[in-house]
Amino acid sequence: MTLDSISILRQYWGFESFRPLQEEIIQSVISGKDTLALLPTGGGKSICFQVPALMMEGICIVVTPLIALMKDQVEHLRKNGIQAVAIYSGMKKREVDITLDNCVYGKIKFLYLSPERLYNDLVRERIRFMNVNLFAIDEAHCISQWGYDFRPPYLELAKLKELHPKVPFLALTATATERVIVDIQKKLNFPQENVFVKSFLRDNLAYMAIEEEDKMGRMVRIIHKLGGSGIVYVRNRRETQEIARILINNGIASDYYHAGLPGQERDQKQNGWMTNAVRVIVATNAFGMGIDKPDVRFVIHLDLPDSLEAYYQEAGRAGRDGKKAYPVILYQKNDEKKLVDSLEASFPDVTFIQQTYHYLCNHFQIPYGAGEGLTIDFDVVTFAKKYQLPLVPVMNALKFLERDGWLTLSEALTIPSRFKFEIDSTELYKVQVQYVKYDKLIKAILRTYGGVFENYILINEYEFANKLGVPYGRVVELLKSLETLEIASYLPSTDAPQLTFLQNRVDYKHLYIDHIFIRDRHQVKGEQVNGMIDYIEKSHCRSQSLLLYFGEKNAGFCQVCDLCLMRIHKESQRAKIKEEIKNSLLLGPKSLHDLIDSLTLGTEKRRIEIVRDLLDAEVIRLEDKLYSWNTLF
Description:
Layout: H1 3-13, H2 22-30, E1 35-38, H3 45-55, E2 59-63, H4 67-79, E3 84-87, H5 93-105, E4 110-113, H6 121-128, E5 132-137, H7 160-163, E6 169-173, H8 178-187, E7 195-197, E8 208-211, H9 215-226, E9 229-233, H10 237-249, E10 254-257, H11 263-274, E11 280-283, E12 296-301, H12 308-315, E13 326-331, H13 333-345, H14 350-363, E14 375-377, H15 380-386, H16 391-403, E15 407-409, E16 417-421, H17 425-434, H18 436-448, E17 457-459, H19 461-468, H20 472-484, E18 488-491, E19 498-501, H21 515-537, H22 542-549, H23 562-586, H24 592-598, H25 604-616, E20 620-623, E21 626-629
Parallel strand pairs: 1-6, 1-7, 2-4, 2-5, 3-4, 5-6, 8-13, 9-11, 9-12, 10-11, 12-13
Antiparallel strand pairs: 14-19, 15-19, 16-17, 16-18, 20-21
Protein name: ATP-dependent DNA helicase RecQ
InterPro entries: DEAD/DEAH_box_helicase_dom (IPR011545), DNA_helicase_ATP-dep_RecQ (IPR004589), Helicase_ATP-bd (IPR014001), Helicase_C-like (IPR001650), P-loop_NTPase (IPR027417), RecQ_Zn-bd (IPR032284), WH-like_DNA-bd_sf (IPR036388)
EC number: 5.6.2.4
């Protein structure tokens, strides 16, 4: 590896060396090769595109569906002095326009985009004029219909090569089966296979899957026994609060987290756990993406994940410091039925999807032939209650409507307030003279921010309320008034999911829904659910089962999971019972009843089982209903 890459790593991230495979992946990218990299959760995927992008002239375009992760990475890069921007749902057209201009003409090094943005002709045309050095495709498994989280907008990614044929792809993911690995490269038109795979083996993780009627009691005992910090995953938001309360009542410092919380509150809860002010965070699967906390000693699932890919990612948040850690599933037999029922709810029929669209348009009072480009805050729970629709099928109906190009729905994300003056400095001075009530606020903005005439800047209303000694509401009122007068653009903060209609409203009876796609996805998801159930019921070793699922065929027993420990205990007990049988029979032949009664270890059933095995192997003999030891052994 060149000194340049090491010096960049040291300068911006403070590391003295790369993790396994990072160097090889970076070298592949620098040499211009399309590359697929599979690194487990916490394996340092972002370094693999950030370092080479900084080594080369131009801008790196990063495509990711995870808007919260996008936001975090942009903030982290900026703190390190690297110019980075993101375009995501909720931004106004003018904001997007200015951001793209800065990528074409400015010194931006990283542009983060959601895959849906590539459907936009304006975005694609601007990318054509950018000096692009790399296309980084995060969560690359989303491009494959065989992947556990298939996202149809990812199918547009291959078109990026039409804009910049010589710019390489770096596709990154933490989990992919052999079929998905092949499909990713095919969908991205790799000229030749080029895959770097770090083993999925995490030999410091002792996987457990325990059938337990009293999940709460077992969970509390596990946490008390293991110590350290951890995550408890549950399926719904209500359970996060209930279980956090149970843990607190049992003397365990805990908090809860889900995507429905305001952004600031989510950040506070996450920070409390990261700094160990809170031992345990109880969360839905909205928690954990992009978080790299090294000292997590346990990850407990109280509900079965819907795929081994999802489970491997979530369980992999334990033990990143290399020390022993415990991913634990606590389940009851009924949980398997719940998982199958959830699968069926995830695939509503076409009629239900069409009706959901009809109600959605009515909800926002969109007339026929109108609505294209409309973006609105959307509360799916309120919508489902209003029309008395089951929530899970509604959420999945929205996904299929998104897949067929009718709308897009962003995840819940705190988008800060943004502000930009729409007149020049000379005109602004006239406003300050003419409207005295705005003078102090305008001066405060100009003193605090640069570039506010050219670009949208992130603005904190509370900060200006403190500076000016006025209520928060007064600052918001003044900012809105400046927009009304067309002196400035003011976009207030939001943390609600954003729904965007991509086409004008049509009669729902003529709404096209790809039922063949729904059928095929149902089959794929069914296979994944069956894989999860097989992991619970049919494993001989938990780690081995996971490795086999991801194509590592020569995996041995891990010797630390619950099944391996039971097997080791059973084998150890067998050896001791065999020794007892030998010692007893060397004293003289015995009837089966007397032999069994002379033993002290194991159950009667277990003792008889071992006697029969020894008899079959001719280690002991049976003559005239008396058992004796074969002295050849």
